[in-house]
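Example record for the data management plan.
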Amino acid sequence: MKKLLCAALLLTYLNVIAQQAHNTISGYVRESVSAELLTGVNIYLPKLKTGTVTNTYGFYSITLTSTDSVEMIFSYVGYSTVSKKLKPAGNTELNIELQPSILLNEVTVSAESAEKQSQAVQMSNVRVQISQVKSLPALLGEKDILKVLQLMPGVQKGMEGSSGIYVRGGGPDQNLIILDDAIVYNASHLFGFFSLFNGDALKSVELTKGGFPARYGGRLSSVLDINMKDGNKEEWHGEGGIGLISSRMTVEGPLKKDKSSLLVSGRRTYADLVMKPIMKAAGEENTGYYFYDLNAKVNYDFGRKNKLYLSGYFGNDKFYVKQKGTDVIENAGFRWSNATATMRWNHLFNSRLFSNTSVVYSNYTFAIYDKYKVPGEGKDYYAEYHSGISDYTIKYDLDFIPDPKHTIKAGIITISHRFTPYAYVEFDALNHLDLSNSSSTAGQESGLYVEDTWQPAGNLKINGGLRLSHFIAKKSTYFFPEPRLSVAWRLSSNLAVKASYSEMNQYIHLLSNTGGSLPTDLWVPTTDRVKPQHSKQIAAGIAKDLDKPVLALSAEVYYKSMGNVIGYKEGATFMQLNDVSSSSTVSWEDNVTSGKAWAYGAEFLLQKKTGRLTGWIGYTISKTEMQLDSVNFGKKFFARYDRRHDISLVAIYELSRRITVSGTWVYGSGNAVTLPLSEYDIKPHMPRPAYNPETGNYSTTVLNYGQRNNFRMGAYHRLDAGIQFHKQKRHYERIWEISVYNVYNRKNPFYYYPENIIVNGKTTGILKQVSLFPVIPSFTYSIKF
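Corresponding structural encoding:
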């Protein structure tokens, strides 16, 4: 109640101030073809040397102190620049439509169409163009936003082919992934090789690695804010494609022209359908895997002051093994699924005060199952283990722009979590066994924030804010203030130095044995025994914009300390939790330990966003160390995905209007892994053999592993290349794409294992490397209509 009262008082205060101002120019910026509202459009007033950007819903507002004529320049990457001159007279509504640019002598795009990063206060921020995602070569032709983000400095990938991201030394659970205000807990398909985000359905992708604005909270390392397209309000369109392992289709169009639109986008693999007749003919077990996902969004424009959006995502992965014989019928496998639903209401109180109210549902579940029966004998058996997390969220945000020197944001959020770390069911008719055991808990997470982007001088911008975070566990309550500050000082029109400081707290945790983000990992809450994670990060850097050629250069250094980072104790795994005999006495809290982590490094990015040739060069040098109380004898060790050097080269070149070529080259020094240093046989007089945790059996041979992550894998590098052929037909555009993954067939290490061989009568230990992907060509056929 106190939080709601504070929000009401804040709203009243901002509304009173807003009514006092005058000479405000405000409106919405849309794409001319589809009427799609555009996020992050730059609005610049050269005479006043100030400006603003559109918010998530395409709205902007600028309040002027004089009635002199002004020039307003609207620019956005991939669109032609629009310049407007007008003389303010009270509140003026100015809605803008931007035309997509054509770079082949039909439209000349000026340098202003590139974002001026030296003019923004925000640092450690990456915006991904969906058009670039679709132009780059990809594994098996599957365009993946997360894999494109892996090509940015400060963002590392996990295992070969994985879509997980590790930002500035943080783990996969330390990334807040938001899809239309809904939290996504597992963003992967195919055991982590592809992400669940279908680029055809997306409008904007923004990653924040540091200098976090106060409106974001709940994670330590990054915020990935993704918004789906609203849908075309002018006419019906669609696009789709057929690839090696999946097909996709997107349809969008007006339900009521200029007022309401609908977007539906679906994707499914068909590897299981292709392999089914082959495996049946071979008389082998029916084994398969598939995933599907569905995005849907509908919106209604009630006029300038009110807009309503309904959106959702539904996805499922399933791996199964079926065997049917005369003596037994068995069906086993595992599955995981994500579901989100969001309702958002935009309300414009006046030309300077904008609000958004969101009601959100999010759910993630994972299950392993095994059932079989003996025909005619009634010997039925069924067992299932599952875990998950579900959220109900209410969120209210305000944007207030009193004048060009201030942009104030404030809001409140509350999330009701329901965790199910494990639930176990077993039924055995033969042995008259009927068991079930589960563990679930609730948590309430809340946040209240206010931030102000302030320009006290023409060459100085400050974003300062405070977030109050709150979490209620079963037996404990936590409350923390989180100060945020970002400063940008412009040394010239195209050069700025920047610095930031932020504190973050995280109340939910991911328990993982692999260091990756797999379906078997468990989401668990903060409790009285497991404290919330917290971090402090400081960063500094420079941003330089070049006009000829149009390039953007940034260089940043950062240092981040993290506390109460958790992990499994030595030898513990999530599978111990489904031991029915011990689950009533041993909880997941008994299997974890906590400690600290430190990450620091430097990042460099040279980027070209306009012209026939676009792309970037990124380089990161970094170091990440951890110390967990019950791991590695309490000593510091390198994190699994600590990587000293990381390089990315990305290029997209339009040879002509019909042909686009692209390529990426990546290099990364080896990840840290734990390998045995030696082995020895136990003495005959010992009472019993030793337990081998690798095999789960007792053996007379013992492996000595030494320190945690004591070995460095070999360096990783790979070249991908692709070419697209576009052809405009009468009613649609056809695109053929050929891409090659790992062009020069580099055998990158996926994992290592020791093996003994006999050479000249002597036993010698060697280390063998397993590689995953050789050179892989792929073909994709796509259409747009």
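Summary line stored alongside the record: Residues 16-21, 103-114, 580-584 have pLDDT under 50 and may be disordered.
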